[in-house]
Specification:
With 120 residues, the chain is mostly helical. The chain has 5 helices and no strands. α1 packs antiparallel against α3 (40-69) and α1 (2-25) packs antiparallel against α5. The radius of gyration is 15 Å and the shape is elongated.
C-alpha cells in the first residue's frame, strides 16, 4: 500500500505542476484559455490573478514532492498536511468557482489522502 500511496502523491503533485504551468505561463495561450474558457481579452485581464493561483499550485506540488523525499515522520506528516490543503482548496474552488474542481482536484486529493493514511 505504501508504494501505491507514494505513486498517488506523485501524480497529485505532478497535476499541480501542470496546473501551475497553465496558470502562470500559458494562461493567455490556447492551453490556458482552454482551461478557463476565456476569450483573449478576458485571459489578458485575468492573467495576473491566474499567475497568483498558479504560484499556490506550485507550492502544493513542492510540499507534496518534499513529503515524498523527506524521511519519516516528517515526510509522512508533510504529505498529510499538503493533501489536506489540496482537498480544502479543491472544495473551496468547487464551491466558489467551478464544480469541476471538485472532481479534478478535491476527489483525487481525498483518495490520495486516504491511501497515505491507510499506508500509515
Amino acid at each position: 500500500m505504501g508504494t501505491a500511496a507514494h505513486i498517488l502523491v506523485g501524480l497529485v503533485a505532478a497535476f499541480h505542476v501542470y496546473i501551475m504551468v497553465l496558470e502562470m505561463f500559458l494562461w493567455e495561450r490556447a492551453p490556458g484559455r482552454g482551461l478557463s474558457g476565456f476569450d483573449a481579452e478576458m485571459a489578458r485581464a485575468t492573467a495576473p490573478l491566474a499567475a497568483n493561483q498558479g504560484l499556490y499550485n506550485g507550492f502544493l506540488a513542492a510540499g507534496l514532492f518534499w513529503g515524498l523525499i523527506a524521511g519519516d515522520p516528517t515526510g509522512y506528516r508533510a504529505q498529510i498536511f499538503f493533501l489536506i490543503c489540496v482537498v480544502a482548496a479543491g472544495v473551496y474552488g468547487g464551491i466558489t468557482a467551478n464544480r469541476r474542481i471538485l472532481l479534478v482536484q478535491a476527489l483525487p486529493g481525498a483518495v490520495t489522502l486516504a491511501a497515505v493514511l491507510a499506508a500509515g
